């Protein structure tokens, strides 16, 4: 997987450049914008980390980059002309399964897939796609990359830190940029209702503290509350474990690494761990250093296993949430009983 998804699946988990809220801690405010009081009202001005972007008219040729914007556009019935390649949980063409399913449902061919090397956007491929907007509200583009992409088309970047935009805000931002704000609200209302229904089915999750982690290649990652995959869990009634904040070292805005010698300090009611394979998941549970984690010692561990499932919930998107929600919640409920 690329560095972006692993650090954001670690994302993604960044998917590490890269490995998903109603969610109780997710903002219900629409993305900062001006000039769009109703669907289809243009020009639209969207504020983000690098300033603001004006979209003069309803986009007809949409390009997506990063995570979640492809799904948001498709959920709104807009088929991009170009989409960012996914290297984690995707098929050989870099297309995620729920994206492929939605395209088939819409009767549309796969858009041009833009090469993602985990570092630099493929500028020439963007030029060839000839978009009139580039949607990257959950991405890791730098200010320099933003400026270069802006020479091709208006770019909608993230509002705060790279790779931390709540998944709901990704949908809202895309809806605003495409002139489909009302439709975006409807999509979110439906998904929020599904999350709320799951929370109601599992009251045992309410108030339980959680630490989301990934142990890979000799490095132990802990995800902060700012990470979209963790923030999503709060909608199920879970709370961020205080120890997650107390042990943070400022390494990143959404994750940090923890030495194996300190794992006994990672107190939480539940540990949620991510694993590419069943073998890795089994090894996690039998590892002596991992066993020092209090929740692991009690057996209060929920595991997300397999690249597709990890991608579906790390963080969820407008199309992937229902793809992995049942399995994730079932695992959390079992862990909460320990």
From TrEMBL:
UniProt cross-references to CDD domains, sorted A to Z: FhuD (cd01146)
Q: Name one Pfam family in it.
A: Peripla_BP_2
Superkingdom of the organism of origin? Bacteria
User: What is a biological process (GO) this protein takes part in?
Assistant: iron coordination entity transport
This chain belongs to which protein, by name? Iron complex transport system substrate-binding protein
Transmembrane segment boundaries: none
What's the family?
A: Belongs to the bacterial solute-binding protein 8 family.
Secretion signal, residue range per the UniProt entry: 1-32
Assigned GO CC terms: outer membrane-bounded periplasmic space
Q: SUPFAM superfamilies from the xrefs?
A: Helical backbone' metal receptor (SSF53807)
Where is the Fe/B12 periplasmic-binding domain positioned along the sequence? 61-336
Cellular compartment(s): Cell envelope
**What keyword terms does UniProt attach to this protein?**
Signal, Transport
Query: Mind telling me which InterPro entries this protein's record contains?
Result: ABC_transptr_periplasmic_BD, Bact_iron-sidero_bind
Q: What is the lineage of its organism?
A: Bacteria, Bacillati, Actinomycetota, Actinomycetes, Micrococcales
